[in-house]
Amino acid sequence: MHLGKVMVVFGTRPEAIKMAPVIKELKKVDDIKTVVVVTAQHREMLDQVLHLFAITPDYDLDLMQRRQDLYSITSGVLQGMQGILEQEKPDLVLVHGDTTTTFAAALAAFYQKIPVGHVEAGLRTHNKYSPFPEEMNRTLTGRLAELHFAPTDQARENLLAESVAGYKIWVTGNTVIDALMETVRADYEFDSKLAGINFNQRLLLVTTHRRENWGDKMRDIYQALLRLVDDFADVEVVFPVHMNPTVRDLATEMLGGRERIHLLEPLDYEPFANLMNRSCLVLTDSGGLQEEAPSLGKPVLVLRDTTERPEAIQAGTVKLTGTSEEHIYRAAHMLLSDTNAYEQMARAINPYGDGKAAIRIVKVIKDFLYVRIGAQI
Fold it and tell me: Which of 94, 183, 285, 374 is deepest in the core (most CB within 10 A)?
């Protein structure tokens, strides 16, 4: 029986990582035709993940432009998706998380009355400007979606509070754990790009990119890193710098050429995940790393004022520091100097799943398509 066609749409590296296990599971189902569309809201970083997980897109909008803004991305996705949806006529459009691609693709599907499935649904800070624009991207996508794949019970409760019907929500765990378990290896060997790093030192893995942190907040983050390196002779900072020029220019200005601080080009997911496994501590304003690092026993300091992932804070795997130089410095200093405090975070149980989220999601999709076909008959 032909159950129907599922169109998976994503545009950034984090989306690709988290959707790869779902695509892999969908392609195991002979009765479902899977169509992959990438918008390339991010280009180079997206391509790295496509190569790693052997994903060949059926359509590529190739939208990325230098210093692109939210208006151009949103309109580009909407216009690009229109013709693809009209041609393919999918039975379900599957999107992920909180990017501009996510919201615009869901809106494009809604305009053609095509059901939307939302992977990693229900995360909320309840502050529409933090993270910006991700909080509203995720919330608005939730209003458009028919199927909600919540990673945790708390995410499910958030959706119920917004009057989403309970029978439309499934708690699946987070697919990033699926991807991570496929990728990290104890015997992984790094290439020459990381040759200058002393893996016998304690490594602080750093990522920053959030729009709301641009400017003085990011300066404070980088100043805290400088102080930590000065205080601990056995610490090295490893910082794969985001491609955005605003981030790169400031990172180079403040951290470039400093002893024991390594500014790297963005890494492919495979070496990045294995680098995280070798690190001592993760400092990030990313969302996904709050889920990944605890699976590897790595404490995470979140360089933001809010987080849509409160489960990690409650579990004790993550600490929200804000962007104050002093707060970041003190939190990291304590973990680097107090073994008990470090072990308490490192050994806390990760609340984001068991690596079987994609299997659960595809089962729901199969049931949904089966019912949909039966209703049409």
Answer: 94
